[in-house]
Amino acid sequence: MTTGLTQPSVEPDLVRFDRTERIIHWTTASLFFVLMLTGAALYAGPLSTLVGRRVLVRDLHVIAGIALPIPLVLGLLGRWGRSLRADLGRLNRWSPDDRTWMRRHTRPDARLGKFNPGQKLNATFLGAAIVLMLGSGSIMKWFDPFPLAWRTGATFVHDWTALGIWLAVGGHVLFALRDPEALGAMRRGTINARWARRERPRWFEERNDPTP
Length: 212
What we know:
By secondary structure, the chain is mainly alpha-helical. The chain is built from eleven helices and two strands. A two-stranded antiparallel ribbon has the order 1-2. The model has no long low-confidence stretch (mean pLDDT 89).
């Protein structure tokens, strides 16, 4: 016996990040936190006095720094990095809607793609920071071939870039906690279709476009 009532259709979740992207994200995040904590223990006055095994902490800092770009480089290789390469392309493209989003009074009118402008800026800064920290840290660690001016400049760049990383990562974590659905997508890979339609309408349409 039927009641004549039709059940509303439930939209399937959308795949937002594949396994490769999630592994790279969490591995890189872990390395960043190791670098931030060991760097603070080595260079922040009040914390440095509490650290007993400074040689071990310094070695961990160097190893994590050298390893930091490896997950991203490995992730870009081969077929498993196709989604990652596509997302890097999205992060490097800016649309008129991104500029609309940057102005608070017009933000509700913006029809965003997969990433908002804040995420694009954060990714750009952290990508540049990896290069700067690896270069300046290498000069600080293996300083013999370099003149004093280079070593002094490397220390200056390293310290101030580290401060920027603390601010960028702290802001990233704060905004992630404010959007549990988006944070969940980085854990499980999928996102609710309603969230995509509301928060990322251009990406939602892209995912549902029947044309090849």
